[in-house]
From TrEMBL:
This is Amino acid permease. The keyword Transmembrane applies. The chain crosses the membrane at residues 34-53, 65-85, 106-130, 136-159, 180-200, 220-238, 259-281, 309-330, 361-379, 391-415, 435-456, 462-481. The keyword Transport applies. Keywords: Membrane, Transmembrane, Transmembrane helix, Transport. InterPro entries: AA/rel_permease1. Pfam families: AA_permease_2. Its main location: membrane. GO terms for cellular component: membrane. GO terms for molecular function: transmembrane transporter activity.
């Protein structure tokens, strides 16, 4: 038996003991698993599309201090999630973890909160692409970008992502691999051109760490906290490595590393990029007053034609980010529907016989993401004087939805460990050893803090939207799902001890043994 076939058989058995058949095509390697999370984090999407938000509220110091601050705490969250992915390697990820560690109702709420965040992140990413593509197209075809033209561009972008994801995981995996290298290459090109071709040269390095300057009407410390949305939204979506875990070879090791390293590399490359962009600013006040601060800064620094070429390259990187986010969202929805957790579950759990992809879940992901942006479009059309921006609304919804969903299983694992239901023997090969509890506590404190910060004015609309969604979830739960949701197969009559017993039986039959790798 070849090594590849051995891995496939072992991974299939590993999934079987959680009660699931191998339906998705398992063809992703370690780099592909890393690449999907790295592409969804996409420093050329989050850090760029919200550059004006960060600069307006926190000034240049937002890039020098805000980015590393957020990245540090997100690495704690990522490490805690990676440990769980290694222990429970199913595509349901967050909600399977919650269900196994506590019960099916905790899993159900985790799944829906994660779905809310996933809707927000897909809408936010593709709306970011539209915010860049629409004015660039307008300059070519001679029209002025408006709220309506941006929505049209957003719709077209969403449809292209749906088509590519429908066609097949092999194509998307190759594009994700390319996307990871493309992101690194474009950051290198952007840094090089700004370093050597910025008109009038760069500012001194201390400008990057200039605190106390805000272009908002808020006191600086309060404004700085609001500006953290730029970095915090960038570092979302790295759970994609867990959602594609059933399509990854040797997932208990490769998916955890995909989660953690995608955040670490995004931190480093993102900081380098933001440093050079910020040091190239000529007039920060004018940049914050422009329709798109990043486009303004690059155009002023590099000139018209040269600047537009760079901006088109950045926009393509954003498009790759949206492609990956639909992949992650649809896999999560597929896994949840497989366990009958959604209305119409039998449809969203179907796999295309031709393409081996959850085709209907993919298109539902597209529709739900469009609806969130479209509802905001209607609100903004009826109230054109609204002070919040569409992109801040979408991104705040995704940050809070995703991070609360990240935090629930981390909290439940701490509880399960305290009660003796999760012990060292239940860990996967990727674990944090004696630092596990400390890292989990720090992660939870940060999640609580950032969830509050993301919905205070001027982002209160995101808070209202999330509150409305939570109320709807409670109604759905008590009206139907409390009695009719069977729960994931991974948690039905299954404790961590039972899963471990099955694993030992399978290893005994195959004659294999586990190799433990401590992170």
């Amino acid at each position: 038996m070849s090594a590849i076939q051995h891995h496939h058989d072992k991974d299939k058995q590993d999934l079987n003991k959680f009660g699931y058949a191998q339906e998705l095509m398992r063809s992703m390697g370690g780099f592909s698993n890393f690449a999907i999370s790295f592409s969804i984090i996409s420093i050329l999407t989050g850090a760029v599309s919200l550059y004006g938000h960060g600069l307006t509220y926190g000034g240049p110091g937002m890039m020098g201090f805000g980015w590393p601050l957020v990245a540090l705490f997100v690495m704690f969250v990522a490490a805690s999630m990676a440990e769980l992915a290694s222990a429970i390697p199913t595509a349901g990820a967050l909600y399977h973890w919650a269900a196994v560690l506590k019960n099916k109702r905790w899993g159900w709420y985790t799944a829906w909160i994660n779905l809310i965040g996933q809707i927000g992140i897909v809408a936010g990413i593709d709306y970011s692409v539209a915010l860049f593509a629409d004015p660039l197209l307008g300059s070519v075809f001679g029209y002025t970008s408006t709220l309506t033209s941006t929505l049209i561009a957003f719709t077209v972008i969403l449809i292209t992502h749906g088509i590519f994801n429908h066609i097949g995981i092999k194509i998307v995996a190759r594009l994700n691999d390319f996307s990871a290298w493309y992101h690194i290459a474009i950051v290198a090109v952007l840094v090089f051109t700004l370093a050597f071709f910025t008109k009038g040269g760069l500012n001194s390095v201390d400008y990057l760490f200039n605190v106390g300057q805000t272009f908002s009407d808020k006191p600086y410390m309060f404004a700085f906290l609001i500006g953290l949305l730029q970095a915090q939204w960038t570092f979302t979506g790295f759970d994609a490595s867990a959602h594609t875990i059933e399509e990854t070879v040797n997932p208990r090791v490769r998916a955890p590393w995909g989660i953690f390293t995608s955040v670490a590399y995004s931190f480093v490359f993102g900081f380098i990029m933001l440093a050079f962009v910020t040091l190239s600013i000529k007039d920060a006040s004018a940049a914050t007053g422009a329709d798109n601060a990043f486009i303004y800064v690059i155009s002023e620094a590099l000139g018209g034609t040269f600047g537009k070429v760079i901006l088109w390259l950045v926009t393509l990187a954003m498009w790759f980010c949206g492609l990956s986010s639909i992949t992650s969202f649809s896999r999560m929805m597929y896994a949840f529907s497989r366990d009958k957790g959604m209305p119409g579950s039998r449809h969203w759990a179907q796999i295309s016989k031709k393409y081996r992809t959850p085709a209907k879940a993919i298109w539902l992901s597209v529709i739900l993401s469009f609806l969130l942006a479209f509802i905001d479009y209607l609100i903004k059309s009826a109230n054109p004087d609204a002070t919040y921006t569409t992109i801040a609304f979408l991104t705040a919804v995704s940050v809070v939805g995703l991070y609360v969903a990240y935090g629930i299983p981390i909290f439940l694992k701490l509880v399960a460990k305290a009660q003796g239901r999760f012990q060292d023997k239940h860990r996967g090969p990727w674990h944090l050893g004696k630092y596990s509890n400390f890292i989990a506590v720090v992660s939870l404190l940060w999640i609580v803090f950032i969830s509050v910060v993301m919905v205070i004015p001027p982002n209160e609309m995101a808070g209202y939207a999330l509150a409305g969604m939570i109320v709807l979830l409670i109604i759905m739960d008590f009206a139907y799902y409390r009695k009719h949701f069977p729960g994931p197969q991974a948690a039905l009559n299954t404790s961590m001890d039972e899963i471990l017993r099955r694993e030992r039986e399978l290893e005994g039959k195959s004659g294999g043994g586990g190799v433990h790798i401590q992170a």
